[in-house]
Write a sequence for this structure.
C-alpha cells in the first residue's frame, strides 16, 4: 500500500508544471505603429500625446472620437478596446492617469496591456508611456506584462488548446538596451515570481515537504553558482531541530529543510538569508482549524516559496552578492503521532517551547530554520517571511505585509524597498508585553500568548531565535500571499509576494 502511494505521487509529480509559457515579449525602436494591433497610453481625461496622438492622426481622429463616445477618462489601470480604427485592426487604450511615474505604474501598464490583449491572436505593438524618472521603462512594462499574464491553469490538464495570444512588442527609444535589461533583470524577476506562484498554487495532496524540496532542486538545475541542499527528517532530528521535527511529526509526509545557496559575491562574504515558513498544509493539527476556509491553508508555504523564488531571481540576474534561501518545510496534521497542546519541544538552539496551540506552528519551524541559518552562514542580514498570523490581516488589510524589526535603519531600508518594488510594508510594534505574554512555567517560552496582539506575539516569538549580532527582520505576509480578486500584475491566486521586495533589498547589499 505504502509503496503504491509513493509511486502514484511520483507519477503525478512529473505532470506538475501545467503552466503555460510566459507571453513572449520583444522590443523595437519607438516610432508610430504603421498598422495592425496596437496598445496606446491615454492620459488623464482621455488626453492623447506623443505616439498616441500620431496614431490618432493616422486613424483620422477615430481614436479620439471613440474616447469621447465611451467617456474614457484614462484612469490608471483602466482600459478601452476598439476594433478597426484607420490602419489599426485593434487598439487597446490603456489609462495612465496623471502619467506613469514609478516602476509600479509601468508594471501596471504592462499588466493591463497583457490582460486586455489576452484574446488577440496577432502580434501586438505596445507604445510605452514616458516615465522620465525610470530607467528602462519598456523592460519594466514588459516584466509587468509577463507577471500579469501568469496563468497556473487547471491542475493536471494541459494548457487550453487553440491559438496562443500574439507576442507583445514594446517600443523603446533604445530597443537594444531595453532588451538587454529585460533579458537580464526582468526575465529573472518573472522566473522567481513564477516559481513562487507555481509552488504556492499546487494542491497539497501533491505538495508534500519532499515534493517541494524536489521542485526546488529541479528549478535550480543548471543555474550557475547555486548549491541546493536537502535535509531529510533524520538529518533534521540529528541536528536537534525539535521544533521543525515536532511540527511535522503528525504527518505521514515528513519535514524537510532546504537550503539554496547562491554565490555571486566575494568569497567568504557573509550572505543575506531569507528563511521561509513552508507549511505545505496547515490543518491546525490537534488544535484543528474550523472547516470553512481551511482549503486556503495550502498556501501556508508561500514564505518558503518566495525565499526560493527570490534567490532564483538573484542567481538568474547574476546579482553581485551571496544569498541563501532556507525553506523550513513541514505538514501540520492531526494524527496519533502528532504533537499536543501542553507538549514541550526542544529547538535547535536549546530553547524549549511549551505548545499552547498546535496551530501556531509557523513560528516553530521558523525558530529552527532561523537558528540553523545563523549557525550555518553567519548572515549579514536574516529575514523570516511567513504566512504567520490571521491577525496581521486584521491590522493591515490586503494592502501591506507586516514588518517587524528592532533596527530602525533596517526598517527604513525595507519600507523604501517596499515602495520601490510595489510590495508594500507597514511597520508594526514589538512591545515587551507581547513577549511577557509567552512566559511559560515548564519551558523557556510558550508558542502563544493571551491578551497581546497576535501578529506582534508571533514576531517576538521568532525574534527570540535571532542572535543579538544578526541584523534581523520578520515579515508577516498572511494577508498578502493570496490575491482574491486579481489585479493588473497579479492574477487571482498565488502572489509570490516578497520576491520583488527581496530583489530590491538585495540591490542595496550588492557590490557596486
Ligand atoms: N497559517 C496560519 C495563519 C494564516 C491565517 C495564514 C490566515 C493565512 C491566512 C497560522 O499558522 C495560524 O494558524 N495562526 C494562528 C495563530 C494562533 C493559533 C496563535 C492564527 O492566526 O489564528
Ligand atoms: Mn496554524
Ligand atoms: Zn500556518
Amino acid at each position: 500500500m505504502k509503496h503504491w502511494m509513493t509511486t502514484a505521487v511520483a507519477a503525478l509529480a512529473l505532470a506538475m508544471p501545467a503552466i503555460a509559457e510566459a507571453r513572449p515579449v520583444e522590443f523595437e525602436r519607438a516610432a508610430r505603429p504603421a498598422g495592425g494591433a496596437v496598445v496606446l497610453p491615454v492620459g488623464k481625461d482621455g488626453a492623447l500625446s506623443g505616439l498616441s496622438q500620431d496614431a490618432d492622426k493616422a486613424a483620422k481622429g477615430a481614436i479620439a472620437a471613440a474616447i469621447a463616445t465611451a467617456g474614457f477618462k484614462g484612469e490608471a489601470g483602466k482600459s478601452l478596446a476598439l476594433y478597426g480604427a484607420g490602419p489599426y485592426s485593434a487598439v487597446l487604450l490603456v489609462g495612465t492617469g496623471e502619467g506613469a511615474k514609478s516602476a509600479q505604474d509601468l508594471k501596471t501598464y504592462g499588466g493591463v496591456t497583457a490582460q486586455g490583449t489576452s484574446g488577440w491572436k496577432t502580434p501586438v505593438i505596445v507604445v510605452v508611456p514616458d516615465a522620465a524618472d525610470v530607467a528602462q521603462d519598456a523592460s519594466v512594462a514588459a516584466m509587468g506584462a509577463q507577471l500579469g499574464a501568469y496563468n497556473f491553469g487547471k491542475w493536471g490538464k494541459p494548457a487550453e488548446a487553440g491559438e496562443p495570444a500574439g507576442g507583445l512588442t514594446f517600443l523603446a527609444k533604445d530597443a537594444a538596451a531595453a532588451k538587454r535589461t529585460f533579458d537580464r533583470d526582468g526575465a529573472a524577476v518573472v522566473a522567481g515570481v513564477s516559481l513562487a506562484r507555481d509552488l504556492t498554487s499546487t494542491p497539497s495532496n501533491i505538495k508534500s515537504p519532499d515534493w517541494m524540496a524536489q521542485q526546488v532542486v529541479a528549478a535550480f538545475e543548471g543555474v550557475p553558482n547555486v548549491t541546493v541542499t536537502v535535509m531529510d527528517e533524520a538529518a533534521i532530528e540529528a541536528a536537534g531541530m525539535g521544533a521543525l521535527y515536532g511540527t511535522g511529526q503528525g504527518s505521514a509526509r515528513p519535514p524537510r529543510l532546504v537550503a539554496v545557496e547562491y554565490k555571486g559575491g566575494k568569497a567568504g562574504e557573509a550572505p543575506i538569508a531569507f528563511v521561509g515558513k513552508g507549511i505545505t498544509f496547515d490543518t491546525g493539527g490537534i488544535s484543528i482549524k474550523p472547516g470553512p476556509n481551511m482549503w486556503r491553508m495550502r498556501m501556508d508555504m508561500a514564505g518558503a516559496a518566495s525565499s526560493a523564488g527570490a534567490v532564483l531571481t538573484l542567481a538568474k540576474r547574476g546579482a553581485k552578492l551571496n544569498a541563501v534561501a532556507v525553506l523550513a518545510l513541514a505538514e501540520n496534521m492531526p494524527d496519533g503521532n502528532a504533537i499536543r497542546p501542553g507538549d514541550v519541544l526542544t529547538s535547535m538552539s536549546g530553547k524549549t517551547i511549551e505548545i499552547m496551540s498546535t496551530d501556531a506552528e509557523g513560528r516553530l519551524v521558523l525558530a529552527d530554520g532561523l537558528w540553523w541559518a545563523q549557525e550555518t552562514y553567519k548572515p549579514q542580514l536574516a529575514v523570516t517571511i511567513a504566512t504567520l498570523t490571521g491577525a496581521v490581516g486584521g491590522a493591515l488589510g490586503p494592502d501591506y505585509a507586516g514588518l517587524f524589526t528592532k533596527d530602525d535603519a533596517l526598517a527604513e531600508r525595507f519600507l523604501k524597498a517596499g515602495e520601490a518594488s510595489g510590495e508594500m510594508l507597514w511597520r508594526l510594534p514589538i512591545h515587551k508585553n507581547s513577549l511577557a505574554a509567552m512566559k511559560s512555567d515548564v519551558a523557556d517560552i510558550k508558542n502563544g500568548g493571551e491578551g497581546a496582539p497576535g501578529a506582534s506575539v508571533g514576531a517576538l516569538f521568532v525574534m527570540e531565535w535571532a542572535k543579538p549580532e544578526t541584523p534581523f527582520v520578520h515579515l508577516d505576509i498572511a494577508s498578502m500571499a493570496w490575491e482574491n480578486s486579481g489585479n493588473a500584475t497579479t492574477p487571482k491566486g498565488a502572489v509570490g509576494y516578497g520576491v520583488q521586495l527581496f530583489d530590491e533589498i538585495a540591490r542595496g547589499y550588492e557590490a557596486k
